[in-house]
Amino acid sequence: MIDIGISKMALIGAVALIVIGPEKLPRVARTVGTLLGKAQRYVSDVKAEVNRSMDLDELRKMKETVEGAAHEVHNSIQTSASDFEKQWSTTDSGTGNADSLAAPAEPYVSYPSYKHPKKNFRLKQGATPQWYKARSGVRTKALSGAARVARYRPSKIN
After folding, report:
1. Cα separation, 119 vs 153, whole angstroms
2. Which residues contact 25 (CB under 8 A, 6 or more apart)?
3. Burial profile 146-155: b = 16 or more Cβ within 10 angstroms, e = fewer
4. What's the pLDDT tens digit per position in 49-94?
5. How would you label 11-41 residue by residue, b for 16+ Cβ within 10 Å and e otherwise?
6. How far separated are the first and last CA of the chain, in Å rounded?
């Protein structure tokens, strides 16, 4: 890039002061600064767009390789399944030992799905255990105003 040191900047400033004049120099400097800022933003946007396109190309290549591997796995599974079906059909029909290979004739038993014993989404369960609250003296039951008055009313002394 351009090698600009402090001495070159001072020389450019002195020439600009002589050519432009002291009255217009601040406005020109502001304009030059805004133009340089816009140019830097434009360059950074172009760099970001190029990086995005490069990343997109890499992702497309990766997608193609993954799809190719998945297709190969799918083909190998289908060929092994067809080989298995051929072997099964020859074993079933050719040897006569199909009864020994067949599963026992037990009725199908359906079991209910697993339900976690503590899963009740309607109940709010706090993060602090009850034993800790009891030990530290934290109130766990809320009292209404009337119940509180009845409970803590001073006893009558006669």
Report:
1. 40
2. 16, 17
3. eeeeeeeeee
4. 999 999 999 999 999 999 999 999 999 998 888 888 888 888 766 5
5. eeeeeeeeeeeeeeeeeeeeeeeeeeeeeee
6. 101
Q: Is 132 helix (H, G, I), strand (E, B) or coil?
A: helix
CA angle 47, 53, 56 (to 5 degrees): 140
Residue spans of the domains in the chain: they are: 6-77
Cα–Cα distances in angstroms (integers) from residue 93 to residues 81, 104, 131, in the given order? 18, 19, 68
Count other Cβ atoms within 10 Å, centred on residue 133: 13
DSSP class of residue 137 equals T
pLDDT at site 126: 67
Judge whether residue 25 has pLDDT over 80: yes
